[in-house]
Amino acid sequence: MQNLNSLRTGANVRIGAACTYLALVLAAVSVLFPIYWMVITSLKLPREIYRMPSLWIHNATLTNYKLLFGDGQFVAAILNSLIVSVTVTVISIAISSFAAYSMVRFRYRFRGFIGKLILFAYLTPTSLLFIPLSILMAQLKLGNSLFGLILVYLTFSLPLSTWLLQGYFRSVPRELEEQGQIDGLTRLGALIRIVLPLSAPGIAAVSIFTFTGAWNELLLALVLITSENQRTAPLALNYLITSDTLPWGPLMAGAVISSVPLMFLYFVAQHFMVQGLTAGSVKG
């Protein structure tokens, strides 16, 4: 009887493991297949793209990439996206670090109300804000400029960064700061030399989220940017569509190129992402 129970237990374990691996394989295929389809489509000629869909390439070509790099406008759009995304990330992390620290460590009136306002500001749909923001940027003479676009992007990146960093800062024991202050550190010194280093994984994760949001944003850029030399990468991809016929080859090639910086960033910082996603979930 004991041997029969052991056999049943072993069979259940094997079945459970097989089901787990099957689910992981299906999840991996569902995630990777669109990327694979995007890459192979970017390497096809138009006549091959509009044929019966196939899962492989018969005659690979770089024609679509040559079309994008031919006039240099798409390269300029990639550089504009890098400038905007990096600037927004740096400014957002710098300001939100002070804001989140003050809400976690200091006690003052309306602190909870301000925290809720920050969350509501992030949850407000962009579609409700782009008209007021475009009018404001026009009145400030900042329309159709990367600087104005950076200011607008900060309106949604700052609330998110502040809200997320609060959880990471709460996970840093208050006693470490008190010990540092006994040793002569000021509040600012404790933040810079104790809290920020201990929250590095969380800050890295928030930085990646902020960079990704700024890099992929299209609606606000579509409203604010009109000059070709000021376009960002998503905006340049949008303007590739000039008629009812979609240029799938150049579109997929541009999507591949636009995805490379994000893929590289996530690949390099994946260790920090794993730590950062769990850093603020446990206090102490």
How do the helices and strands line up, and which of them pair or pack?
Layout: H1 2-42, H2 46-49, H3 63-70, H4 73-105, H5 111-123, H6 130-139, H7 146-170, H8 174-182, H9 187-198, H10 200-216, H11 219-224, H12 233-238, H13 248-268, H14 270-279
Task: Explain the overall architecture.
Helix 1 packs across helix 13, helix 5 packs across helix 7 and helix 10 packs across helix 14. The chain has 284 residues and is mainly α. Helices cover 76% and strands 0% of the residues. InterPro entries: BP-dep_ABC_trans_perm (IPR050901), MetI-like (IPR000515), MetI-like_sf (IPR035906). Pfam families: BPD_transp_1 (PF00528). This is ABC transporter permease subunit.
- Series of secondary-structure elements, N-terminal to C-terminal: HHHHHHHHHHHHHH
User: Can you count the helices?
Assistant: 14
Strand content: under 5%
Q: Calculate the terminal CA-CA distance, rounded to whole Å.
A: 48 Å
Mean pLDDT: 84
Largest sheet: none
Which shape, going by the Cα principal axes? flat
Low-confidence stretches: 280-284
Quaternary organization:
single chain
| Number of DSSP strand runs | 0
Helix content: over 70%
Q: What class do helices, strands and sheet pairing give? A: mainly alpha
Q: What is the gyration radius calculated from CA atoms?
A: 24 Å
Please supply descriptive tags for the structure shown above:
mainly alpha, disordered C terminus, 284 residues, 14 helices, flat
Outline of the structure:
With 284 residues, the protein is mainly alpha-helical. The chain has 14 helices and no strands. Helix 5 packs across helix 7 and helix 7 packs antiparallel against helix 10.
